[in-house]
Amino acid sequence: MRRLAAAPVFSLGFRPLFLAGAGFAALAILIWGLWLYGHWFDLQPAGGMLAWHRHEMPFGFAAAIVAGFLLTAVPNWTGIPGVRGGALIALVSVWLLGRLAWWLPLPTGLILALQWGFLPLLAVMLGRDLVAARKRDNYPIVLVLGLMAGCQALTLIGLYNDDTGLQRQGVLGALWLVAALMTVIGGRVIPFFIQRGLNRPPAPVANPLPTRLLLIGSLLTAVTFAAGLNDSPQWWLAGLFVLTGSLQLMRLIRWHDRGMWRVPLLWSLYLAYGWMALATWAMALWHLGLIGQQSLATHALAVGGVGGLILAMIARVSLGHTGRLLQPSKGMVLGFALVLIAAGCRVLLVPFSSLGLGLSVVLWCAGFALFLRHYTGILLKPRL
């Protein structure tokens, strides 16, 4: 056990959790696609395949990546050594038990308990260090994690009571909370990455008001989903989505630099953030009665925004924090493009052809498989 705890893969949180999250992203969507097309076994998870798919993408896949990023970033912000070794193995084990619990012949209550343990434990670990270092500017991150844990509890209560409406509220609330978290983190790192990646002079300090409004609007958006207020079109919610969508668009305009289109680690982040803005505007159009399917906006966010940003971010963070040059392989650049195209297939082709769903599944799985192909060795080996 000591040798395992001392292995490079457990030296920082991003290493095991990026590997676990990316592997699960490919496996979970592969299983979902096989089931949709009638090629899956009779084995069913607790609550059925739809409940499993809804729950596992935000609370399994996204939560693992968010945890890996924050467990690596918070030590840099606080100066306090991060979770590693045996403690990190224990945290990853809690995450893994939650994924396996769906498929084990256990009492329902135990299954739900195993699934819910990860986010509260993560919030406590990070909150302890942020409070000790008095990093008040980062307290909202712990708030978002707590709200995500609340949404997961809502989803699991719905699963226990066979209430699909409650499950949907919790899952969509969590998805938009992940978007809120990425709005906060993206607003910090994307302009910095562009400035450093293109050797541009530092930009003047921006007015903090739009950023604060965007954070408040993003959190309110997530709360409206968790409360079930987005089940039918509402004019006032259209206004909320127009406001947040406009602020997202302003960011994209302010960040744009023609030089970034030559740098894959930059355009991949920029285009994925663009999918987040597009999803917000699509929700505004749905509330105004101009789009017929809310799921198009949801999957624009989930596949293009969250999936695209995650893949681009973990590729960059993995290179930077292992001492490698910030130059992804050609295979990884292809992976960025595949996930972004997968979003286009899911949103633009599915309304017209069932082929769009199959293409989206294949492209998504291929994109994350390419990450595993090119980064597993990097994440298992010591820092250069």
TrEMBL record:
Q: Which InterPro entries match?
A: NnrS
Q: Which UniProt keywords apply?
A: Membrane, Transmembrane, Transmembrane helix
Q: Does the entry feature the keyword Ubl conjugation, yes or no?
A: no
Q: Lineage of this protein's species?
A: Bacteria, Pseudomonadati, Pseudomonadota, Gammaproteobacteria, Pseudomonadales
Q: What is the protein name given in its UniProt record?
A: NnrS family protein
Q: Which residue ranges does UniProt annotate as crossing the membrane? A: 12-37, 57-74, 86-104, 110-127, 139-160, 172-193, 213-229, 235-253, 265-288, 300-319, 331-349, 355-375
